[in-house]
Amino acid sequence: MVENRFWLNLISHGVLALGVLLVAFPIWIAFVASTYPAQALVTGTVPLWPGDQLLENFGRVLGTGSDSSVGVSVALMLFNSLVMALGIALGKIAISVLAAYAIVFFRFPLRMFCFWLIFMTLMLPVEVRIIPTFQVVADLGMLNSYTGLTLPLIASATATFLLRQFFMTVPPELAEAARVDGAGPIRFLIDILLPLSRTNLAALFVIMFIYGWNQYLWPLLITTSEDYYTVVMGIQRMLAVGDGEVAWNEVMPTTLLALLPPVGVVLMMQRLFVKGLIETEK
Amino acid sequence: MPRLVRGAGHFVMSNISSERVPAFDSHWLPWLLVLPQLLITLVFFIWPAAQAVWQSFLMEDAFGLSTEFVGLENYQLLFTDPGYYKTLWTTVIFSAGVTALSMGLSLTLAVMADQVVRGAQVYKTLLIWPYAVAPAIAGVLWLFMFHPTVGVLAYLLDQLGYEWNHFLNGDQAMLLVIIASAWKQISYNFLFFLAGLQAIPRSLHEAAAIDGAGPLRRFITITFPLLSPTTFFLLVINVVYAFFETFGVIHAVTQGGPGDATRTLVYNVYDDGFVGLDLGGSAAQSVVLMLLVGALTVVQFRYVERRVQY
Amino acid sequence: MARKMVRSSLGVALASVMAFNAQAATQIEWWHAMGGTLGEKINEIAAGFNASQDDYEVKPVFKGNYTETMTAAVAAFRAKQQPHIVQVFEVGTASMMAAEGAVYPTWKLMEDAGEAFDPDNYLSAITGYYTSDDGKMLSMPFNSSTPVLYYNADALEKAGAEPPKTWEDMGQVGQKLLDAGYKCGFTTGWQSWVQLENFSARQDIPFASNNNGFSGLDTVLEFNSDKHVQHIAQLADWQKSGIFGYGGRRSDSLPKFYSGECAMYMGSSASYSGVKSSVQDFEFGVAQLPYWQSMIDSPKNTIIGGATLWTLQGHDSEDYKGVAQFFTYLSSPEVQADWHQFTGYLPITHAAAELTREQGFYAANPGTDVAITQMTSGEPTANSKGLRLGNFVQIRDVINEELEKVWAGDASAKDALDEAVERGNDLLRKFERANR
């Protein structure tokens, strides 16, 4: 090498460390904010170093039940978010695997029509069709239910497409061989195709879990019973205090708690997620 | 062959036309397999979307008590409203800002991570997690830091003699929503850039180094061109992200203000429909957005698939 | 077809559930927009009512901020899933009034249910906002507030100034504060409500034609008159010199006051409890909203903000008896006095105000009676009765946008107000068409 590796390395580490700091800084501030009493956070500049109210604030957020400002405990909201995120992730993967399998490995009348019908759902985010969708869900009697929280959000084709892309890279000979060996289509799907799609399914799971966990407007509109409030929506509720004061010392601990599960999922499944994400999308 | 799939959902670029020989024969099984997805799509997507289209031809009071069919008038009102073009322009600026900032930072970090001999994996872990943060929460966090009165960064800027008040200054508000939106997207871009960089053969670098090319020159002449498919892919992803998925950030941080400085297309749809209860006007905007995304998709199929080769 | 089947089977299921619950209390849903400690207080009120009788159970549901609550109720009504009672902010009044088939007017509700009800018990300055042209009360007043001036007593003393009574004083007091080393004289919350709507009422000039929209849908906005322009232009000058410091929409500017940066804050009287708990390092006081001596000799009353409770159609008449009973409970002097003292919202009845005075609350908490004195100082005029404008939520947004351009120095007061009036009128015409 011609140039000085040492300096290059040093600069690289320096820049990366700065990047890590930049990325982590907001979380540090959130952590600091959750260690102070409420007044300290509206009367002057938020400090950079933690105070002494950490346990009190987290205790209050986790401890309170129906008398909290949102009307429901944070623990229950976390649970609801978990149900919603898992429901969306697993539900979406389930229907997508089946649909993609049918479209790639079978030929049947109206195959392309089905394909385009599903494809169309990619074109409109939930925010802009939310009121008519609400009406449908209300007509079906699904307000205030986990079904209502999850099912309408499964109606998106991202996962189907991702899987379709992957299935098309599977050599047709593999299916041929399976057929010669006497394995039916269902056996082939379960024994061969799904294990092959492991990394893709993992990446999908992470993407969809986060998508489900982070939903805000949808749960806001269709839940009228506190029993179904989710945590991201709960945080927005804590901010909507009208003429009162925002209790930042409760918002911030709740924010941190709301971050833990999705970040945990990303970090735990990091290897599979990164591999699956990059492989399928490249 | 580039195929893009957005995480949260509504964008794909893929090789639609390719056919393969089906492996199995059955008359009923494939139908059974696509049925769940078809049903859900019809009930929760096609039907409401059709209603939105129908709604865009109506003028209605909020409660739906009096309805008047007005044909294309909602569209006419929309396209004669100078505010709508302003919103479009704001969206373009915002998207350009988010894309440039986020991709610039990610590329820098990825190049550095590709350089270092040790620790790349650790950095990857430390940089990946903002991907999991909800846009609304990202907005709240950045708002909290830049709050003109209590925010720690606003305070630091003030100490440096720069007055920060994004409640008043539209440019600062725009900058703030750009930063908050870009922050969330860094991890995603970083992962793809790093993978792209690691796919470039070392021998190319070494050969150039022997020829006497410095690190910067090598980056410009070798790395960047070879990275162009990834860059292009991310460009599209980031623009789509900025267009459609930053609603939560804007809602939490500025609500379109001050003035109309940060009012983007999707925020406008929300504000007119959800806040203003002008369902017809809002539905017309939704339809315009639908067409826009449709057009974008077609352009990608036709253009991107042919030009960018892996 | 499938939908019908689902619906009817659902109906059967619901009917059986209801038959099963026939013995239990009838549930009454109340959607509200009160988060934080206010929400806890609401739960307390509902619990109080539920404990007072066995036939009905009021169930409060927090549905987010005012806008989200109203939209949720509208969406629910369109899907026939509406609550019995919904809390709607004052700017939504015209939309609710126009929705005749959706709303169950309070006077009729009380009459049908046979509840004793006398509108004269309520403060006319409040009910005026929610009364039809023929004097019938359409919704139940609940949380009403009016803008007042909060001041940092220590800062004023240090600057050698008294709390300003007039806008003329305000200029001098602000200058003294700047001279004494303060960064900012005063800031304001809710700029449209305080600096334009209440400015019009206090100075007795129209905000819009048709008696501020009370007597017709073909209203046009009139807040670009010379007086309005003069006021906004003055504020813009002060924004440059630092006497005025803009701090954001809604009550986002309150931290400027808490931190001592701005010595005065104009905002809702209902912020009292928040101010009291957040201000730590100085003594604060409350004064009436200033007026321009050059424009009026004795200022009119200010107008209200906040929200009222609307009853929605579509439930059993038995349910509505419960709603009526609940409204009676809600208006009782004890409940109202407690709510008023706890929150800083105005007492809605004369009896509640009287009770509060008897209990010695005003004496013990100086400043808490400023709002009610200011509201009831005289008979409301056509200009100070209130506002009834369609699409008012968006009109306020337009006003926010245009005023922010003025504060930022991007537009003159005249141009911005003209523009706001023009854009606002478009919204009014749209509303007129949809509600013909």
What key attributes describe this structure?
heterotrimer; A: 282 residues; mainly alpha; MetI-like fold; globular; B: 310 residues; two-stranded antiparallel ribbon; two-stranded antiparallel sheet; 13 helices; 68% helix; disordered N terminus; disordered C terminus
In DSSP terms (H or I, runs of 4 or more residues), the helix count of chain A works out at 15
* Structural class by sheet pairing and helices of chain A: mainly alpha
Give the total of beta strands of chain B. 4
Distance between the termini of chain B: 6 Å
CATH topology of chain B: MetI-like fold
Largest sheet properties of chain A: none
**Sheet with the most strands of chain B?**
2 strands, antiparallel
Described by the principal axes of the CA atoms, the overall outline of chain A is globular
Using a beta-carbon cutoff below 8 angstroms, give the protein chain pair with the largest interface and the number of residues from each chain: A-B, 113 and 111 residues
The CATH architecture of chain B would be Orthogonal Bundle
Radius of gyration of chain A: 24 Å
Q: How many domains, in number, for the residues of chain A?
A: 1
| Second-tier CATH architecture of chain A | Orthogonal Bundle
The name of the CATH superfamily of chain A reads: MetI-like
What multimeric state do the chains show? heterotrimer
* Helix residue percentage of chain A: over 70%
Helix share, percent of chain B: 55-70%
What's the level 1 CATH class of chain B?
Answer: Mainly Alpha
Mean pLDDT of chain A: 81
Basic shape of chain B: globular
